[in-house]
Amino acid sequence: MFSDPVIGDHFFGRQEILDILYKRAGALKSGYRQNVAIIGHQQLGKTSILRHFLHTFKDLKVLSIYVEIKFQALDYFIDQFARSLLYQYLSQREPVNSTASLKELTQKASNSVPRTVQAIEEISQLLRQRRSEEAYSKLFEITSIVGQETGKHCIVVLDEFHRLGEFGIKNAFSDFGKRIMVQKNTMYLLSSSSFSASKRILAEKLALLFGNFERIYLEPFDFGTSFEFLKKKLFPAAMDDVVSEFIVGFTDGHPFFLETVTSRIRESALSERETTISRATVARVLLKLLFESQGVLNQFFLKLISPWMRADSHGSHILILTALARGVNKLKDLAEELNRGQKEVSAELQQLMENELVIKVGVFYRFHNKIFKFWLKEVYERKELSLLGSNAKAEDFIASITKAMEECETLMKLGAASRIMNLFSLFNNEMVEIGEKKRKLPHFTEFIKVPAGSSGDETVGALIARGHGRCWVCKIVEEKASEKEILELIENSPHNKNVSSTKVLVALNGIEENARLLAKEKKVLTLGLSRINLLMDIYGCSPIIHSGSKKGS
C-alpha cells in the first residue's frame, strides 16, 4: 500500500462530491433512495472520500456498512459485510471492539436483533455446505431484515465493487442487481478504480440497474484546488509562482502524487530551514522519489508495470509504454517504431488499457497520469533499456527537472491565444473524441489573432484558423463564459459559403449552464480547460494552468 486513506482534519477538497453523498444519505430517511457509484483511476482518493463520508456522517437512524473487496474470497466478503453491519448497530448502543469476531458480535446482538443474527448464521451454514450461490444471494437480504427489526435505514458501501465478479458466483451482478431493485430502504454507494471493468459491467451486466445510479467520475484536483493544497501543506514555507505551477502541472493535480511530492518537499525545506522553497530542493526531492531505486514513486511505477517485467512474460508491452512516453502515440507509428504488425500492437495496447495504464482518445493513445509518462522516459528507459544503464545518471535527471521548470517559466509568459494557436497548428485531420463525440481536427495553414479590445491583450480575444476549406472561428474567454460570449461569437463570425466554418468557444474557466445549453442549440463547439489540455497532451504540449480556475469540461 503506497498511501493510506485520509479522513478528518487531513482530508482535503472534494466538497462537491461529499455534498452529494450527504444529500443522498439525508434523503434516504425521507423515503427517497438514490444509489451512487464513484468511478476513477487508482490513487485518486475514492477510498478517502468514502471513509471521510462515513467518518463525518452520523445519524442514529442509519447504519453504514463499509466493505472493501480486497480478496477473491466469498467467505471473507460475507464475514466483513456481516461484521460491519453488526458492529455499526451495536456501536450505536454500547462500546464495541472493532476487531471483534463475527461470533462475538452475533452473541452480543442475538437478543436485540435475533432475526438478523439468525439470517447471518444461516448464510454461514450455507457456506459450510459449499452452497455459495445461495449464501451470496441471501447476504443482500440482511439489510431488509435488520431494517424491519430496528426501523433503521442502511447505507451499504462497497469499495471496488467490480470485484464482486471474482467470487466465482455464476450471476453475481444480475443477482446483486435484483436485490438492489427491491430494497427501497437501503442505499448503495459503490466505488471502482477500474474504468474498463466498470464500463463493461455497466454496459453488459447492470445496464438496467444502473439507470437508478448516480454516477460520479472522479478526476484529479482542479488547478485552483491544487494550488490551495500546496499552500496549506507547505506552510509555513512559501513557494514562488513558477515552482508552484511546475508542481501542479507535473502532478496534474493527482492527489496521491501531489501529497507525496509536497510532503517530501516540506520535510526537506524544514530540515534546510528554507522559508522559500528553491528549485534545487524540488529537483533533489524528485530525484529521491522517482530516480533512486527505493524511491516511493519509483517503486509505485515499477509495481504498475511488473506484470510485463517477469521472465515468463510475452509481448512488447514495455516497449510500447516507453515509445508512448517518447511521444509515439498512434497505432501505425507505434507498429513502425517497434517493427511489429499493427494487429499485434493493437492487441497489446488493449491489454494495457484493461490494466488502466493507457487510454485511447480517437486515434491517439495516452497515459492518464503525466508523471508516469515522465518516469518511463527519464528513469525507466534510461536505467533498464539503455546499454548497461549507461544513460542513467542522477545529474542528468536533475538537469531534466531543471529544464522542465525553465520551460514552465517561459510558457507562463505566453498568452493563452499564442499557445492555443500553436496547438491548432499541430492538427492534421486526426480523429479524436471530445466529450462523447468524435471529431476530425482539421489541418490549418493560416491563423489570424484578434486582440481583445484596444488593450491588445492576446490572452483574451479571438482566433481564426483556416485551411483546406475548413475554418474555426474561436473566442477565447478566461473568465467563466456566459450567454453573452456565445451570442458575440455567433454574431461576429464571418460567413463564406465556400468554407466550412465551425464556431468554437474556448472557455478557460468553465461555462455557465445556460450558456452551455445555448451553445448546444447554436451548434457551437465548447472547449473547456480540460479538453484543451487533453489536446495539449496528445500533441506533446504542456498544459495551460490557471491558478484560480477550475479545469472545466
Compact description:
The protein is an alpha/beta fold.
Structural descriptors:
Rossmann fold, five-stranded mixed beta sheet, five-stranded parallel beta sheet, alpha/beta, Arc Repressor Mutant, subunit A, 16 strands, globular, 4 domains, 23 helices, Helicase, Ruva Protein, domain 3, 553 residues
Main sheet overview = 5 strands, parallel
Which second-level CATH architecture of the largest domain applies?
A: 3-Layer(aba) Sandwich
Number of H/I helices: 23
The radius of gyration computed from the alpha-carbon positions, rounded to a whole number of angstroms, is: 26 Å
Strand order of the largest sheet: 2-3-4-1-5
Number of discrete domains:
4
Give the termini distance in whole angstroms.
32 Å
The CATH class assignment of the largest domain is: Alpha Beta
Helices and strands in order:
Layout: H1 15-28, E1 35-39, H2 46-56, E2 62-68, H3 74-91, H4 102-109, H5 114-128, H6 132-139, H7 142-150, E3 153-159, H8 172-182, E4 186-192, H9 195-205, E5 213-217, H10 223-234, E6 238-239, H11 241-251, H12 255-272, E7 276-277, H13 279-291, H14 296-305, H15 317-325, H16 331-338, H17 342-354, E8 359-361, E9 364-366, H18 370-385, H19 394-412, H20 416-424, E10 430-434, E11 437-441, E12 446-452, E13 457-467, E14 470-477, H21 483-492, E15 500-507, H22 513-521, E16 525-528, H23 529-538
Parallel strand pairs: 1-4, 1-5, 2-3, 3-4, 6-7, 14-15, 15-16
Antiparallel strand pairs: 8-9, 10-11, 12-13, 13-14
Helix pairs in contact: 3-4, 3-6, 5-6, 5-7, 10-12, 11-19, 12-13, 13-14, 13-19, 15-18, 16-17, 21-22
